[in-house]
Design goal:
Layout (H helix, E strand, L loop, with lengths): L1 H8 L5 H11 L2 E4 L11 E6 L1 H4 L15 E2 L2 H6 L10 H22 L9 H13 L1 H23 L3 H5 L2 H17 L17 H13 L1 H24 L1
Antiparallel strand pairs: 1-2, 2-3
Length: about 240
């Protein structure tokens, strides 16, 4: 969607006029994702219009630009929006939210790679800071594992015939299995949520890179989960 908006705006070759027209008309450009005409969680993506008014490439948009924001109730009413309210949707939203939160936190630590060469005291202080963040990272990581288990258990409690008739849910299960190795902090980390206390900056940076690389896969898993929820609800209403 972001790429489509940028391509549409780029039709104008007068860069100064384009910049003025966009920033004067809109301070922000908001994208409200809908599924079958309804919002999944009442949130939207909000971007500064400046990002669309200059030719700086797709790299202009960082991970933080896609942090969803709640749509104000008055705007929700004015736009005549409504939200899907099936409880099982919350599980998928929790998974994507937790992994995004974890990715942002670990990426924050990766930024210390940009520091100039540190002396011994600098390395010691940096390592202490990393270790202080292992507790919140470990808590989020454990919540991710618990949410994955909740999604897998839902699939396991279905009969074989029910599983066969739920292709979207089957895709979710396959996606979670492929995701597992990528989200572990280190190769020898157990699934109990404990992060290695000896993690150093290179290991944290490598983990951050992996977490960033799987964001699209995580969102696809979420969309397949959503598809299963809506199809199952629609099927139940027809019976």
């Amino acid at each position: 969607m972001v790429s489509a908006i940028r391509r549409a705006i780029a039709v104008s070759q007068n860069h100064e006029l384009r910049h003025y027209a966009i920033t004067f008309t809109w301070s922000n450009i908001v994208i409200v994702p809908l599924v079958k005409g309804k919002s999944l969680d009442g949130t939207a993506w909000r971007f500064s219009s400046i990002l669309f008014s200059v030719d700086t490439g797709e790299g202009t948009f960082g991970q933080w630009h896609f942090v969803p924001v709640a749509i104000p109730s008055n705007a929700f009413s004015q736009l005549e929006l409504s939200t899907w309210t099936y409880p099982r949707l919350l599980v998928g939203q929790k998974l994507t939210g937790l992994l995004f939160q974890l990715s942002l936190l670990v990426s924050h630590l990766r930024e210390f790679e940009k520091l100039p060469e540190l002396n011994e005291q600098g390395h010691e202080l940096l390592q202490q800071y990393i270790q202080r963040l292992t507790t919140p990272m470990g808590e989020i990581f454990q919540a991710v594992l618990d949410t994955e288990t909740e999604m897998l258990n839902y699939f396991k409690q279905l009969s074989p015939s029910e599983q066969e008739n739920r292709p979207h849910l089957t895709t979710v299960v396959q996606g979670l299995a492929e995701l597992q190795e990528q989200i572990l902090p280190t190769a020898d980390c157990s699934r109990d949520g404990r992060i290695q206390l000896t993690m150093n900056l290179p290991e944290v940076a490598e983990w951050a890179n992996r977490l960033e690389s799987i964001q699209q896969s995580v969102f696809l898993i979420y969309l397949f989960w959503v598809s299963d929820v809506l199809e199952e609800a629609e099927s139940s209403s027809c019976n």
